[in-house]
Amino acid sequence: MKRNKNDGKLISKVEVPVHSDFEGQITIFRIEYLVDELRVVGFIIRPRSDNKLPVLIYNRGGNGEYGKLDDERLYRLSKYALEGYVVLASQYRGNDGGEGKDAFGGDDVRDVFALSWLADELPYADNKNKVMIGHSRGGMMTYLCIKYGIDIKAAAVIGAPTNLLRRPLAFPMESILADRIGDFSEKRSEYCERSALLWPEKIKTPTLILHGDADSRVDYKDAEELAELLTKNNLKYKYVLYTDGDHALNKFEKERDREIFDWFSIFKND
Could you say which DSSP state residue 246 is in? Predict the structure, then answer.
């Protein structure tokens, strides 16, 4: 993906309080950075360490203000930082006071690329060791980043939609997509662009696919179909289905996160 002159430029950084569970162990900064000359809001969460650490880019789910990075999600990202990563995450353009419009996998994919470019300038980040996690919509964003050639060694997706052409979709997804992308009949090509099932051969980054069979928002059968297509294309992946797992795999939090970081460890310093 083409980088514009100021994409990824850090323009503000404000330290924010950490949860008492992590006092003295990590630092959290709320940042503003430039993408397409827009101010986009995000976060950097890093362990207190003098060593250069690998980079983890986290792609949030939701749309607009719904699902944005709040105290609960920052708590999770704090735990990810303690796994030994510099964690970067975006609210995506147009959200949490940022400029622009959230397009649910449109130009806002550039907001994630810009985090990767920003990481390249951080003196405490090992820019040769980057990984990515995406949940729900963030999983779709992860697939799109891989499709467009982002510089990461491995990825993990949780409850990621891979087929936006499916009808009917779980409520209220159809209305959300119509608002963010446009009318399905008029913007079908945009829906195809966001549907990894239509371009499995482009998922060349080793990807861990996690899904629950009780996911009421995204049908796990799409994940299974993508896994089959990745097999046919001889691409590196692992698919784990959790019996009675919900959209975020909340009941399997420890197993979910251990699976993710064990997967990343395979490709660390590779």
Answer: -
pLDDT of residue 146 exceeding 90: yes
Quote the CA–CA distance of 7 and 239 in Å, as a whole number.
34
Supply the pLDDT for residue 104: 95
User: How far is it, in rounded angstroms, from Cα 55 to Cα 84?
Assistant: 9
Q: Helix %, strand %, coil % for the chain, to 5?
A: 30, 25, 40
CA–CA separation, 91 and 63 (whole Å): 9
Say if residue 72 is exposed, middle or buried (CB neighbours under 10 Å; 0-12, 13-18, 19+): exposed
Long-range Cβ contact pairs of 164-170 (< 8 A, separation 24 or more): 164/140, 164/191, 164/192, 164/194, 164/195, 165/191, 165/192, 165/195, 165/198, 166/219, 166/222, 170/216, 170/217, 170/218, 170/219
- What's the whole-model pTM score? 0.97
